[in-house]
Write a structure and sequence with these properties.
8 strands, about 400 residues, 15 helices, Spore Coat Polysaccharide Biosynthesis Protein SpsA, Chain A
Length: about 400
């Protein structure tokens, strides 16, 4: 029975993969060279003493007329030296276009809104205080925004100098996420404006009252969903590259993912009226159902595989105890390749194999499109597909429990 359920799950994964692969061959609309219009960049910061200088330094290297960039750093009640380091950096480098605003801790959304209130430019960008931008990132975002009718454009986010196992696995994850975000942008179903580096049409963003401060998680997801609810587009710019700091330990990764997944659940409930609503086209009829279905399929797969593995192991141990010679015979009896192939149920194995091959194709394509080397990441790719799903499932379960019982939410 378990095998047939896994067959169904594999078939669904295969179908979804083929749908997304189809968008790989859809060309993106052309665009004109960017006009260097004034842009305000808001940087919400909370306890970012280790990264804020790096973020400001990357802004100084932008290939964009510096006189047309205004930066508003909002220190949201940090308890470390974030504000002191920021002030010193601004003074030492005479960054007259950067202002530091200090406020009591109100949450990330409130910090972004503080910066937004000071924006009088056509475009407003949000940049996390642990992220650095590449020199052409802003010009690429502005160019696409000027050539399209989109309300927001997001950059490609890569892991900044991954070293630990946790960082290297997330490097693989971010490559795949970037590819799928690009495909969602082409399909007009993108539903996220991450804090890595995102550019908004200021008047549109102010028109929907900015970022929500309702104490929900993932304000970047909430504002994108609200933009979609108002009929606006969100796109991805694959030539705008940013690098961000990611969790490098079990505990920090756990807290981040539980926060993310609680925000996912919270916002999908908040915008449930968009689900299966023909008014929102493929976003409501396809993307939102797929978002929820993906979580269900992940949890179902992990639970079934875990149950099957434990059951088979328990049966093997039992037979090894009660049947003489069972353990030795089964441990030393290796089937030939022919016996192994003939023992498989083709109806079940075929979609699993095809799904795996399509997944590998997408993985290779992701690394190629975003110009990253694949070979050094092979071991971490194995970890991502074979081990990480179990950890991710635990994150989801924890998030479901916390959200169900309305436990307190925190920015960090």
């Amino acid at each position: 029975m378990i095998q047939y359920i896994l067959w169904i799950i594999s078939f669904v994964f295969l179908w979804l993969s083929l749908v997304w692969v189809n968008y790989l061959h859809v060309s993106e609309p052309g665009r004109r060279k960017a006009r260097f219009v004034p842009v305000t960049i808001g940087i919400p910061a909370f306890n970012e003493e280790n990264t804020i200088a790096k973020t400001l330094h990357s802004l100084r290297a932008l290939a964009y007329t510096q006189g047309r960039i205004r930066v508003v750093v909002v220190d949201d009640g940090s308890t470390d030296k974030t504000a002191e380091i920021c002030s010193r950096y601004i003074a030492e480098h005479r960054m007259q276009n950067v202002v530091l605003v200090r406020q009591k801790n109100q949450g990330k959304a409130a910090a972004i809104n503080t910066a937004l209130a000071r924006a009088e430019t056509e475009y407003f960008a949000v940049l996390d205080a642990d992220t650095r931008v590449t020199p052409n990132a802003l010009a690429e975002l502005v160019s696409v925004m000027q050539s399209s009718r989109s309300a927001a454009a997001i950059s490609v986010v890569k892991v900044d100098h991954p070293e630990s196992v946790y960082e290297r696995v997330q490097h693989v994850e971010y490559m795949l996420s970037n590819l799928f975000r690009r495909l969602m942008g082409v399909a007009d179903t993108l539903f996220l404006t991450h804090g890595g580096f995102c550019l908004f049409n200021t008047s549109v963003l102010k028109g929907i009252q900015g970022f929500s401060e309702d104490n929900g998680h993932t304000e970047d997801l909430e504002v994108a969903m609200r933009l979609r609810a108002h009929g606006h587009r969100v796109i991805m710019v694959h030539n705008a590259i940013t690098y961000t700091t990611v969790p490098n330990s079990f505990a920090t990764l756990w807290r981040q993912r539980v926060r993310w997944y609680r925000g996912f659940l919270y916002n999908h409930v908040k915008f449930k009226n968009l689900l299966l609503n023909r008014k929102y086209g493929s976003f409501g009829l396809f993307q939102l159902p797929v978002n929820l279905l993906s979580v269900v399929l992940l949890l179902a797969t992990i639970i079934l595989v875990t149950y099957g593995t434990i059951s088979d192991a328990a049966e093997f141990v039992y037979r090894s105890v009660v049947i003489d010679g069972y353990f030795v015979n089964h441990v030393l009896d290796f089937p030939s390749l022919k016996e192994l192939v003939l023992a498989q149920n083709v109806q079940i194995t075929l979609p699993i194999v095809m799904s795996t091959l399509v997944g590998l194709y997408v993985l290779v394509l992701a690394f190629r499109q975003f110009e990253e080397r694949l070979r050094p990441s092979i071991f971490f790719i194995w970890l991502y597909f074979m081990v990480f799903p179990y950890l991710t499932s635990l994150h989801w379960i924890h998030a479901l429990v916390q959200e169900t019982f309305h436990m307190k939410r925190r920015w960090r």
